[in-house]
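User: quick one, sequence for these tokens?
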């Protein structure tokens, strides 16, 4: 019997596509329901659409307001009862 993950902090580095990682997380039953926040320097329409398709919990464009980010994190954790 596996452990159910509630959240998984993840840092990404330049050259790594966060949408590929989101898609991979969504494809596994243990991680498919994790709330995902995307922080991006490229808030293009295409990226917003990809985020919606991957059912992310939040999408924040850089530079971001710390209060906005805090609220998105709070809402995402609230989804999983953390």
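Assistant:
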């Amino acid at each position: 019997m596996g452990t159910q993950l509630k959240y998984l902090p993840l840092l990404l580095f330049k050259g790594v596509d966060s949408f590929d990682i989101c898609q991979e997380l969504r494809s596994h039953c243990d991680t498919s329901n994790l709330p995902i926040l995307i922080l991006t320097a490229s808030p293009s329409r295409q990226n917003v659409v990809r985020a919606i398709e991957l059912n992310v919990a939040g999408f924040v464009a850089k530079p971001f307001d710390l209060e906005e980010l805090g609220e998105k994190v709070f809402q995402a954790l609230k989804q999983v009862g953390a």
